[in-house]
């Protein structure tokens, strides 16, 4: 089984430069990846786990058993170049992460490569994908693992704080010693001591919380999609309506109750929607039939412009990259074609993601070329060192034995006549000729090459 490749978490190495976090030396944490993954009331669980204390998850996120027949595996498809379309993939990834979590790994980057490979192999027991798509599947899998690990640890920490009656992250150490059903207590305690209770981590946590709570319209940003991505919601709507949908439709579906037919879920979404509709009326008139399917300039203005946007556009999750939106506003006020502001089926984020992938690919190639140049420089340096060593050796040999070295014979020269002044531009020194000793070094080198 894969457990044999993992070993003790404290001895595993990671590819990043940060020093690994270790569990106490007196602890004995055994990996649980060799246990069978079974389907309990809450999805995948380790064999022997107390099913009675599990909470039932929502239907779409229910974990699944790896099929024994490889032909019965589900084939994965990727939406928008960033998420898996199939239901239950995310929950399966979470359960795999939990079963392989045997080290002090506060982030995905901290997990050793051999453990990631074991997780990837286990993931392959549940799903199929075209061989040519494996790089893309691996990339989306890594992205999903990174996000789900972060969410899972955040949720576990919040749950523990609630159980301990802790309301401030500063008091997180009060949660030490609490048993977590999927994580050894030793690892839990080390995470608290070395990560979550540190000043730097808590400062970042406070800053992130402040950013989430700070909204121009006086409310916390919300949506009704739950754990389902906006791209998955888009696909579901298109299956229901049997037609392409547009961004405003998706926004109402994900920010209104009752599947888009009720009230807005928060104040900000209502204000943005009202501003957008008002801007369209000012630009195109009150007749909605004259309005474009989506006006990126009007939307950008409604959400507060570039100042209110970091990497993603409010209202659409990761579907629309901020750069794509604002580039569209500078090139056209409105559009009705399959571009960044057309039907959402055009997945504009895909184009931006592809550009980002090209940039990453070019950066990787540049890094590879830089490494090659560095290796060449090192090789040149090695050759220079060898040359210097050779010259030193030759000088030493000439000093000791130069006067006794005979000139090359006819056989040395491949059967040709002995080199003369007429044929070579110089005369070989006679043995023991003191006045020609200055040429011995050159004579020896020539003799050495001929030899």
UniProtKB/TrEMBL annotation:
It comes from the Eukaryota. Coiled coil: none annotated. One of its GO terms (biological process) is transposition. Residues 1-62, 403-436 are annotated as: Disordered. Residues 1-29 have a biased composition (Polar residues). InterPro entries: EN-1/SPM, Probable_transposase_24. Residues 416-431 have a biased composition (Basic residues). This is Uncharacterized protein LOC120251571 isoform X2.
């Amino acid at each position: 089984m894969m457990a044999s490749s993992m070993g003790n978490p404290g001895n595993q190495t990671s590819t990043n430069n940060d020093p690994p976090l270790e569990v106490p030396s007196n602890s004995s944490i055994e990996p649980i990846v060799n246990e069978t993954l079974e389907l309990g009331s809450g999805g995948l669980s380790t064999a022997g786990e107390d099913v009675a204390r599990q909470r039932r998850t929502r239907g779409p996120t229910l974990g699944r058993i790896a099929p024994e027949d490889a032909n019965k595996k589900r084939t994965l498809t990727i939406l928008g170049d960033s998420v898996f379309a199939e239901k239950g993939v995310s929950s399966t990834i979470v359960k795999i992460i939990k079963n392989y979590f045997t080290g002090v790994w506060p982030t995905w980057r901290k997990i050793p490569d051999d453990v990631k490979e074991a997780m990837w192999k286990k993931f392959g027991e549940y799903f199929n994908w075209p061989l040519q798509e494996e790089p893309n599947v691996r990339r989306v899998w890594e992205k999903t693992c990174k996000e789900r690990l972060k969410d899972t640890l955040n949720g576990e920490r919040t749950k523990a704080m609630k159980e301990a009656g802790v309301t401030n992250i500063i008091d997180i150490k009060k949660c030490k010693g609490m048993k977590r059903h999927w994580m050894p207590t030793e690892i839990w305690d080390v995470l608290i001591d070395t990560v979550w209770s540190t000043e730097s981590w808590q400062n970042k946590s406070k800053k992130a919380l402040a950013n989430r709570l700070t909204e121009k319209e006086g409310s916390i940003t919300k949506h009704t999609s739950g754990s389902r991505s906006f791209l998955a919601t888009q696909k579901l709507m298109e299956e229901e309506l049997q037609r392409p949908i547009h961004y405003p439709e998706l926004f109402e579906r994900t920010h209104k109750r009752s599947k888009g037919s009720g009230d807005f879920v928060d104040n900000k979404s209502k204000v943005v929607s009202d501003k957008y509709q008002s801007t369209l009326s000012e630009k195109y008139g009150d007749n909605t039939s004259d309005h474009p399917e989506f006006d990126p300039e009007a939307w950008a203005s409604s959400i507060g412009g570039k100042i209110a946007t970091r990497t993603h556009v409010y209202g659409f999750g990761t579907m629309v990259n901020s750069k794509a939106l604002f580039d569209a506003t500078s090139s056209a006020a409105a559009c009705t074609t399959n571009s960044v502001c057309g039907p959402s089926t055009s997945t504009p984020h895909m184009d931006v993601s592809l550009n980002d992938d090209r940039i990453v690919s070019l950066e990787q190639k540049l890094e590879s070329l830089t490494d090659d140049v560095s290796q060449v420089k090192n090789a040149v340096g090695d050759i220079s060192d060898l040359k210097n060593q050779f010259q030193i050796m030759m000088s030493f040999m000439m000093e000791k034995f130069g006067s006794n070295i005979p000139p090359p014979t006819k056989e040395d020269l491949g059967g040709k006549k002995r080199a003369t002044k007429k044929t070579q531009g110089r005369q070989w020194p006679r043995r023991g000729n003191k006045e020609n000793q200055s040429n011995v070094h050159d004579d020896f080198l020539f003799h050495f090459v001929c030899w």
